[in-house]
């Protein structure tokens, strides 16, 4: 798609480090001439909103698990109108989010509204572009270091402003490009889903029936297990493994004084993306962070009990994790890798078990009480070898498709950055585009977005805290 664009014929130095050169006919404006801060409060009857990196600012689905204190302080939340822009430390890694709903949000957020309606489309794309997002860290401040965006500093920052007609062309071109890329991603998602379903079926049969098709079976009395080999022993998860819940007691979770040390800190998103083993990490705790957390040994089997429910992986290194992740240390009678595949097979059952009125969170005691069928250790080892051999080609196909999705997303990120900062001229390309309605199915962004924020800290968890500050 970049091939249909051309370079601008005349460029000038913007004088803005993150921006570099811009088209000569573009202007630079301070943010305060384009957006104003909205600080309205006292609207407790408005719906609660959440800032997401994939859908912008949208209405929250469930609040049954919120504290009474948080709910009675709704009058302290800030009003957000449709087309506003929303940002705080909780979301700035994904850019300034665009509001698609009217409602209220935590006072930790800075709310901005455009001074001219014609600017909405272009600003929405500029504020989410990679160069601009990296620049946002310059404007972080607050009572707790890193807690808020300083509007006064942000208001003085300069951003590029193309002529109105070119803004419209940029929006039209990027909308068209996004539709095409979404179609490709959607096709890859469907393929990945089919491959994962096939893997799930292979694993489920192996860990509940074994490898011998002629083995005598017995009723397990457990719906998800069905009939199991007669010589397998029916047990509870807590009988074959030590169940250890993660820990991170400090609030707010994102207080920077607890991070950037020597202890890896794993969150739910990293478990979801890991595959079988967690081999890397993005965040660390220091000694102060370790004091409010807990270090788990390499080889620990970990499962998410909130956000990405029931995802499981094996730690390749010592690490800490929050209480939204549970660790399992197998006892002598169970092979760790067999337990891993058993949990993979159990995931659908765990999802059904997760109560809706606690935002889908799993209960640790209920996991420990789950019934399993345990073969002899030699048979466990044979089942693990058979599963990995049988699923090798499927795993490779999933990794290939997932890699292609990542490349598509990288392409989209680069394209947006080059267009909104004036590195590519899309006016002629946009003029040649056909009219097109956006009737595509929504993407399962939570499953494929490597940059999606971890959901361990929800947006309204800080309501009471911010009210007290």
Q: Determine the number of helices (DSSP H or I, runs of at least 4 residues).
A: 14
CATH superfamily of the largest domain: DNA methylase specificity domains
Structural class: alpha+beta
The CATH architecture of the largest domain would be Alpha-Beta Complex
Molecular shape: elongated
* Ends apart, CA distance between termini: 49 Å
Radius of gyration: 25 Å
Q: Using the coordinates above, name the CATH class of the largest domain.
A: Alpha Beta
Let me know the average pLDDT: 85
Please name the CATH topology of the largest domain. Adenine-n6-DNA-methyltransferase TaqI, Chain A, domain 2
Q: Strand sequence of the main sheet, in spatial order?
A: 18-26-23-24-20
| Major pleated sheet | 5 strands, mixed
Helix content: 25-40%
Number of domains: 2
**Total beta strands:** 27
- Which regions have little confidence, pLDDT < 50, spanning 5+ residues? 63-69, 356-360, 438-469
Strand content: 15-25%
């Amino acid at each position: 798609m970049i091939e249909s664009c051309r370079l601008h014929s005349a460029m000038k130095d913007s004088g803005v480090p993150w921006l570099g050169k811009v088209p000569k006919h573009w202007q630079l404006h301070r943010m305060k001439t384009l957006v104003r801060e909205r600080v309205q409060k006292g609207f407790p009857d408005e719906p609660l909103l959440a800032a997401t990196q994939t859908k912008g600012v949208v209405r929250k689905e469930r609040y049954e698990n919120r504290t009474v204190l948080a709910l009675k302080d709704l009058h302290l939340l800030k009003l957000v109108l449709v087309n506003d822009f929303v940002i705080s430390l909780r979301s700035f890694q994904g850019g300034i989010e665009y509001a698609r709903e009217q409602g209220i949000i935590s006072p930790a957020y800075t709310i901005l509204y455009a001074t001219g309606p014609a600017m909405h489309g272009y600003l929405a794309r500029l504020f989410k572009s990679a160069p601009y997002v990296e620049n946002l860290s310059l404007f972080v401040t607050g009572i707790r270091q890193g807690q808020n965006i300083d509007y006064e500093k942000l208001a003085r920052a300069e951003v590029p402003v193309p002529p109105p007609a070119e803004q419209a062309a940029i929006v039209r071109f990027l909308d068209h490009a996004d539709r095409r890329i979404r179609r490709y991603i959607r096709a890859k998602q469907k393929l990945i889903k089919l491959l994962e379903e096939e893997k799930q079926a292979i694993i489920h049969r192996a860990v509940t029936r074994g490898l011998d098709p002629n083995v005598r079976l017995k009723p397990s009395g457990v719906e998800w297990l069905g009939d199991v080999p007669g010589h397998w022993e029916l047990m509870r998860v807590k009988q074959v493994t030590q169940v250890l819940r993660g820990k991170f007691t400090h609030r707010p979770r994102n207080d920077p004084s607890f991070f950037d040390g020597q202890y890896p800190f794993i969150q739910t998103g990293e478990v979801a993306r890991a595959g079988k083993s967690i081999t890397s990490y993005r965040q660390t705790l220091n000694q102060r962070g370790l004091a409010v957390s807990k270090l788990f040994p390499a080889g620990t089997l970990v499962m998410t009990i909130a956000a990405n429910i029931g995802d499981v992986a094996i730690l390749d290194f010592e690490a800490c994790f929050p209480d939204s992740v549970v660790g399992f240390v197998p006892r002598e009678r169970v092979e760790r890798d067999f337990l891993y595949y058993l949990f993979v097979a159990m995931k659908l059952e765990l999802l059904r078990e997760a109560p809706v009125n606690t935002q889908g969170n799993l209960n640790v005691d209920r996991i420990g009480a789950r019934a399993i069928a345990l073969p002899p250790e030699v048979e466990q080892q044979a089942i693990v070898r058979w599963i990995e051999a049988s699923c090798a080609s499927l795993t490779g196909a999933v990794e290939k498709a997932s890699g292609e999705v990542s490349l598509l997303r990288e392409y989209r990120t680069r394209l947006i950055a080059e267009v909104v900062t004036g590195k590519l001229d899309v006016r002629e390309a946009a003029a040649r585009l056909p009219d097109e309605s956006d009737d595509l199915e929504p993407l399962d962004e939570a499953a494929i977005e490597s940059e999606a924020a971890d959901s361990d800290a929800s947006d309204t968890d800080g309501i009471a805290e911010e009210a007290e500050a």
